[in-house]
Amino acid sequence: MQQIDLIRGEELTAALKLRWDQILRQDELLHSPFLRPEFAEAVAAVRDDVEIAVLKECGEIRGFFPFHRDHFNVGTPVGGHLSNQQALITTTPDDWDIRKILGGCNLSAWNFDNLVASQTAFENYHYFTEPCHFLDLSRGYDGYVEQRCQCKAKHFMEIFRKERKLAREAGGLRFELHTDDVCVLQTLLDWKTNRCEHSGTFNLFAFNWTTALLGHILENPSERFAGLLSVLYAGDEPAAISYDLVSESAADGWLIAFNPKFSKYSTGFICALKKAKALAARGIQKLYLGRGKGRYKELLSSSSVMLAEGTVDCNLVRGTGKRVWTKTREWIRASPLRNPAKQIKRLLEPLESRRLSAVETKLSTDHDTLTPGSQNQ
Questions:
Q1: Suppose 66 and one of 78, 122, 195, 351 were both cysteines; which one would form an S-S bond, judging by CB atoms 3.0 to 4.6 Å apart?
Q2: What is the CATH number of domain 2-131+313-345?
């Protein structure tokens, strides 16, 4: 007999975290640090709207389903758009009816945008799937470079050439896999903010809870989950900074930004390769680059896993409407209307950015967004 117990994020006990970890270890597709209990716990430390469904069968814990809930009882994955991978945490997803899970959580729908697509229980709810590229470091860094040079030798040689040129002209290069310097984190956020303002895109890191989450994870590392703030220095100046989440066997790129002064040297590629070398030495086997396409990801990528966007909606009419809209959007992207549509999108991006900003601000206010430690004040 299946049972669903609902707890708040702050009620996640050591015993529950241990069981969660045991489940993750049984499926290599669930090794992203975003799927770990510590990530849900970290989000719960800075937001008070994290809930977790504990899935039981005959009294034994079989899985977990963490989520946020809005005022309309619509759920989203823990961390929202900050979550690079999402999944139903169980080794037997096909044994569970996701609609019944939503019913047990009193949710009318659940929206996802980076769901592990191999969980076929959600297949009927996918709008579309996209690859999430990763660097395969299972054979070490040298093995990774050897494999990539078999098909991208020219591009890799160009990166190494630019690295040597930057080192000569800047007075040397230095790479730190991790620093806890808060000034480095602030520099990273400043670069991201400037880029968003320049492009007119939505800046998710303009809100208290998102920056508090970054700081909280850096300040609370554990053996199986931590944040890595990596820096590539050209001389004494930061040339590229990245923020990754790491588990025992996988790392997931979260944020990366570059110093515009050194843009011609491809510092993002240089930083990524130096980071890959350092992570491989620590036993990390995969470095995920996030969902979507792009020259940066496709050049560095060894392979990919598929992630899905979609909605599980208990309201059939509303769910069908969302599916039709999304399918239409994807058809336009693949049709001759793509370029005109992109022009219209660019004109509307500032308005959309303001709308998302207003929604995020309201969400933070409605849920009494917390910074670390404020629960005890």
A1: 78
A2: 3.40.630
Judged against a pLDDT cut of 50, whether residue 371 lies above it is answered with no
- The type of residue at 56 is K
For residue 277, count CB atoms less than 10 angstroms from its CB and return exposed for 0-12, middle for 13-18, buried for 19 or more.
middle
Alpha-carbon gap, residue 371 to 334, rounded angstroms: 43
| CA pair distance 175, 269, nearest whole angstrom | 13
Q: Is the pLDDT of residue 303 over 60?
A: yes
Q: Is residue 40 within 8 Å of 52, Cβ to Cβ?
A: yes
Question: Would you tell me how many other CB atoms lie within 10 Å of the CB of residue 320?
Answer: 11
DSSP string over 235-266 = TTEEEEEEEEEE-SSEEEEEEEEE-GGGGGGT
The residues of the chain that CATH labels 3.40.630.30 are 134-305
User: At the top level of CATH, which class does the domain 134-305 belong to?
Assistant: alpha beta
Return the percentage of the chain with pLDDT > 90, whole number. Answer: 73
Distance CA 320, CA 334 (A): 21
Query: What single-letter DSSP state applies at residue 142?
Result: H
- The pLDDT assigned to 300 comes to 95
Place of tokens 């966007």: 309
Distance CA 352, CA 105 (A): 31
Q: Sign of torsion, CA 261 263 265 271?
A: positive
Q: Which residues contact 9 (CB under 8 A, 6 or more apart)?
A: 40, 41, 43, 44, 47, 50, 51, 52, 66, 78
Buried residues in 40-53 as b, exposed as e (16+ CB within 10 A)? bbbbbbbbbbbbbb
Q: Residue for token digits 């554990």? A: 222
Specify the pLDDT at position 319: 55
- Min mean pLDDT across 184-193, 279-288, 327-336 is at 327-336
Torsion of CA 11, 93, 297, 263, to 10 degrees: -10
pTM exceeds cut of 0.70: yes
- What confidence tier does 199 reach under pLDDT thresholds 50, 70, 90? confident
Mean of pLDDT values over 74-80: 95
Calpha distance 211→209 (Å, rounded) = 6
